[in-house]
Amino acid sequence: MDTIASLFSFITTPVSWVIVQFHTVYGKIFGPDTGWAWGLSIVSLVILIRICLIPLFVKQIKSTRAMQTLQPEMKKIQERYKNDKQRQSEEMMKLYKETGTNPLSSCLPILAQSPFFFALYHVLNGIATGDTIGVINESLLASARKAHIFGAPLAAKFKDGSATVQALGATVTDVRVVTAVMIVMMSASQFYTQRQLMTKNVDTTVKTPFMQQQKMLMYVFPVMFAVFGINFPVGVLVYWLTTNVWTMGQQMYVIHNNPTPGSKAQAAYLERLTKHVTTHGKARKRSERTIIKAIVAKGRDRNEFERKFINGLNKAGLAAQADGSVIQSESQAAVQTEDGSPASAAAPKRQQPKRQSKSQRQSGAASAGSKAAGDDQPSEPISLSKSDEPEDAKPAAPAKSQSGGGTRSKAQSGQRKGPQRPKSPSKK
What is the pLDDT of residues 322-374, one digit of tens each? Predict the structure, then answer.
């Protein structure tokens, strides 16, 4: 550990300076030699570091979601080149390059904290051994050695013997009880943080090896913290417990306000958003408009929860727009349909013709036939005067069928069909 600490010695002085500045402030409130002054100084150091690491945390979230999206493609590559590991690695790197993702981005916050962690360990180890380090001089060293957190010295460890613990002004029982409680709390907070991520903020529609790896880490990390925790000083346990609690709270905030698409957290968030938007008739927050804008842009690629959200707005007489706003669907010129395509709100609906009975259809056919026949010959006005032409010379008008069935009229009885020859005069 001395070799590792020496590698991070360049940051030991800045870390010790920050601790001393916070100790000066808290020492005026609680007393310079109290555990509250030194313990809160370490807590404040953690908060300051984590605030500076928020951009990396945001990048970690984006990288994790991008990796979840790529899991189906990665699984196909693994199955296609399962017998060629080199080609498999090349295709994986090609996929990462094309999509702009980096598997190591999810580890950035932990890697960024490592120098501060080892620098703090080096500072507390120097307090335990009575060595000045960084900006901590003799007077500050003596004050830190007197500081106790719930009866345990700041620089004491779980595995320290009675002689070492008595030199710091405490008992082995106090040190081991306090360190054991802090180790359990540290492991429990890590387990809850990972479990919250797996049960609420993972896309349940995609089953990939990545989820199995995350599930395994959910149990491995707490065990690792418990094993390494017995070798950490009390001050380092305070640091690590604080950063775990910060991570847990930060992740709860992200899951509540910006969940992973397709996860249970997204279903709960969209349900709350539906109630909020339908109550006020619009999206009031910028974050809400950002979520709605992303859902509208997906169109037909929306998942089950997003389609349910759009349908809920439509039932309430609202419509989500491409810019993330929500307006009344009656007053808009173009309604956003469920599949993302605009449809004219003023377009008349096409009405289906009513079904006609058989007799109505036959009557319509007969009337259409009579109209067609009348169109072939010019219509003449009916004259009441007696015509000069003999009646036999006039062509006989076709008899119209009086029945609605449109059938051919029957010939007169006693006559044959077709043209008739004139009768010869009878001989007397």
Answer: 888 888 876 443 444 444 444 444 444 455 556 667 677 777 655 555 544 44
Residues 88, 92: Cα–Cα separation, whole Å: 6
Of 64, 72, 62, 73, the closest CA to residue 98 belongs to 73
Distance CA 12, CA 72 (A): 44
Q: Is 336 helix (H, G, I), strand (E, B) or coil?
A: strand
User: Is pTM, for the whole model, over 0.70?
Assistant: no
**Burial (Cβ within 10 Å: 0-12, 13-18, ≥19) of residue 101:** middle
Choice between 198 and 342, residue whose per-residue pLDDT is larger: 198
**Other Cβ atoms closer than 10 A to 426:** 5
Q: Which amino acid is at 298?
A: K
- Please spell the DSSP secondary structure of 275-335, one letter per residue: HHHHHHSS--SHHHHHHHHHHHHHGGG--HHHHHHHHHHHHTTEEE-TTS-EEEGGG-SEE
Residue 48: which of 243, 189, 190 has the closest Cα? 243
Residue 10: band (very low, low, confident or very high) from pLDDT cuts 50, 70, 90: confident
Q: Which residues sit opposite 335 in a β-bridge?
A: 343
Look at residue 92 in the predicted model and tell me its pLDDT: 81
How far from chain centre, in Å, is Cα 324? 15
Q: Could you give the C-alpha distances from 72 to 95, 96, 205, in angstroms and in order?
A: 12, 13, 11
Cα–Cα separations (whole angstroms), residue 256 to 263, 280, 307: 12, 20, 20
